[in-house]
Amino acid sequence: MNLSLAAATIKRINYWLSEQKSIVAFQWSPIMWGSTWSFLIISISTYIITSATLHLLLLLIGRRRPIPLGPIPALHSLAMSLISATIFLGILSSAAAEIRDTRWIWQRSKTPFQWLLCFPIGTRPSGRVFFWSYVFYLSRFLHIFRTFLTILRRRTLSFFQLFNHSILICMSFLWLEFSQSFQVIAILLMTLVFTLVYGYRFWTEIGFRRARVPFVMNCHLIFLVCNLACHIGVLLLHFYKGGCNGMGAWFFNSVLNSFVLLIFLRSYVKTYYLIRENYFHVAASSISEVGDFVTSQTSNKSVVSSCGPKI
Hints:
Largest sheet: none
Transmembrane segments: 37-62, 74-97, 129-149, 156-176, 182-203, 215-237, 249-269
Shape: globular
Subcellular location: Membrane
Protein name: Elongation of fatty acids protein 3-like
Radius of gyration: 21 Å
InterPro entries: ELO_fam
Pfam family, one: ELO
């Protein structure tokens, strides 16, 4: 009885994640919200201008203490963790369904893992995985609210934080616009990391003990290493397996990811150097602001506990 109930529950969850008519029939088109280049440019510009304006206003009024935000940061972290977990399960279920339904077309030339990395040339942005790619794109606009929370609580604005959040919005738009290969693996990796990172942030923001190691930074390091390995895999498949779809957008994303990786490694090494020198504690630090935070803390040798936004 319990097994039957569990099987029925899993089947129903799978239906809501990958078999609904709206998911199966999804098609990226200019009439959808956020699907135009003008919207992309205006939204990113508005985000940067609003963040900079808020930061300048706080500087002008000379407020030195953080603005109390109550449970808002914890609720934001909880929402991001749950949304990321849902997207992870949704795209995993949808990818399995797409492989099941279309494998007969490409089974002689690709394995399922190769399909996840390298869409066949001519792939259109429609179907299950692109539905969840669109949901991921929309979730980036909720993600950027972390920037405003950071400015209000910490009175700091990181260039890398603005750059990284803007790039994530741009990249997720390009995935849909050009049916870019690699996006399934990228979304799986990112949503898994977001689930863990924001779940950990919620845990600490409601008062539980922080980890003794920089948990958030280590999660990002593992993600970036896996991301780099998958990029190399896409490149090899493109040249040796007949080509991958959306390689122009993939190249642009690769350049941006390389820049992010270099900045992260610089911040990671600097952070561990300062930990060894006992300057401060970064158990809850985040990749997106750790570079600026490290720089600001080297001039004042105090012990600080940091909790900021991610990529």
